[in-house]
Structure to design on (229 residues):
């Protein structure tokens, strides 16, 4: 049973560039959430997708955008990269976007470095 | 205001001993879920244990148990018989019924000593 998979594992970009991160949810899951984790901190919620729509968004600028495909996989896009965007980006999947008791299962993350 | 507070940035425990990692939370929602995750240096967040706000009994999963004190708004993780592989960052998180996201604390770095 495949867990949550993310690609790429590592990425190096320069300021002003754009980046796309990808996530395939755990089998049977239909909801994908994205989190940003800066070094030494807990993850911060970016947004959640369900039925191909953004259902909730955290306190992130609209440089951060996403998409969910019919097979439930998802992409996170970040435009006009800033040095402060350097972080570990975690994708989490779950079943049922309104089930607060369902644990979210995380991938290994994509480590993004901005030069 | 901080919704999840983990006051122990770092903890040390001797192998085979038990350790308690503290977590307090703040919410006005009557329904919520509390989660603990383990994050090794590799980065993956591993789900450990869940406690619902209406659960009468403390959750247990193998060597992990959650000491849930609702009136004190505390949800401490207890790891029994610590192993070297338990060395990692541990995060407490909450999901309120009105929210879709997990809100995480700042984490506790646990080091198990041989």
């Amino acid at each position: 049973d495949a867990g949550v998979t993310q690609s790429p594992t590592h990425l190096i970009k320069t300021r002003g560039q754009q980046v796309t991160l990808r996530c395939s949810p755990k089998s049977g899951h239909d909801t994908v959430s994205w989190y940003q984790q800066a070094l030494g901190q807990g993850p911060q919620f970016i947004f959640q997708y369900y039925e191909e729509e953004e259902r909730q968004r955290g306190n992130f600028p609209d440089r951060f955008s996403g998409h969910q495909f019919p097979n439930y996989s998802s992409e996170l896009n970040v435009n006009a990269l800033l040095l402060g965007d350097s972080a570990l980006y975690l994708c989490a999947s779950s079943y049922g976007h309104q089930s607060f008791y369902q644990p979210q299962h995380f991938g290994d993350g994509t480590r993004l470095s901005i030069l | 205001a901080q919704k999840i507070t983990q006051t122990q940035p770092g903890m040390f425990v001797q192998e085979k001993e038990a350790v308690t990692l503290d977590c307090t939370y703040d919410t006005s929602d009557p329904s919520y879920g509390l989660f603990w995750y383990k994050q090794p240096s590799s980065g993956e967040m591993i789900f450990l244990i869940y406690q619902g706000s209406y659960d009468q009994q403390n959750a247990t999963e193998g060597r992990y148990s959650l000491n849930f004190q609702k009136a004190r708004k505390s949800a401490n993780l207890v790891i029994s018989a610590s192993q070297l592989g338990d060395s990692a960052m541990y995060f407490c998180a909450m999901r309120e019924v009105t929210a879709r996201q997990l809100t995480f604390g700042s984490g506790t770095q646990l080091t198990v000593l041989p």
